[in-house]
Sequence to fold (358 residues):
Amino acid sequence: MTTLNWLTDAAKTICDASIQAATEHQQQLTKPAGSLGQLETLTIRFAGFQGVAKPVINHKYVRIFAGDHGIAANGVSAFPQEVTAQMVHNFLSGGAAISVLSQQHHADFKVCNMGLIDSPAASALTAHPLLESINVGKGTHDFSTQPAMTQPQLEACLEAGKQCAENFQHTQSVFVGGEMGIGNTTSASAIYSVLLALTPTQSVGPGTGVNNNVIKQKAALIKQAIKLHGVTNQTAFNQKPLEVLRTLGGFEIAALVGAYIHCAQRGIPILVDGFITTAAALVAMHINPTIKPWLVFTHCSAEPAHTLALRFFEQTPLIDLGLRLGEGSGAAVSLPILDMALNLHSNMATFASAGVDS
Fold:
């Protein structure tokens, strides 16, 4: 059995001196102070991440964690469970949205198979340079009747996420984590219910496009699971986020938790995608609050409860385009904004160099 002591090691310290230097540089650029809004604050954050006045991004890492969910047997998704493995093939062949976006941004892209149910598509997965197979089980258990995963499975997923982050270049880097797993919006909603003290009705949304009857069923299943596992949404229970993850989570969500925590420990900024990846961020921050400054929330998901999570993290997302695809796609869409922000910061003229009165 592995040890999880590393989960609570402090995140790398943000460089306040670099934040100050970048702030002062922004004030000298040929524009009214604050006129570039979030482009300025984003750049200043990255200065603190990198410990330099003029940050640059040379390494973009995109990792998609895929895993099946036992809760899907209850018909909580608009798609059959076999779609998880079919989409893994789509990622590998370059046809998925996140694949296209990763290629556009010349990102280092890979898919991590955390554990899929038996299906023709899963059986057809063979060695591929973009595929890492962890396979901790054939999907999670139905969390409405038993814990989603065992303790060894939880630990294996967290360690897989850690190892993923360990392989990244830690300077001038950024991490985009994505997910794929039919049924995982139900798992994420359950995590929101506990860690944000929401009722299941508040936390559940349309996910892949289900109707109101399915939404009500999802809420009922989550209510049943919370009672079954004794994971009440009282504040005191929030001190046991690993148990929330084990009983209600998914293999891919747990791997994201491990990756998020270790990226922050290594000093790699994290571009958080949407509803499901934010569930991972919620768990990760409850485990290790020091990672919070390293989480950059990129967009507001169309899932209603995501707004409540963003309020909890006290962040305004970079974009709001009504996205609800997942896969890390919203975070990838924000990459050009990051590139533009850093480019403006480094290459705009100052009042002095341009001979403009300030």
Observations:
- The chain has a mean pLDDT of 94.
- The chain has 16 helices and six strands.
- The beta strands are 59-67, 108-115, 131-133, 173-180, 270-272, 295-297.
- The CA atoms of residues 50 and 171 lie 7 Å apart.
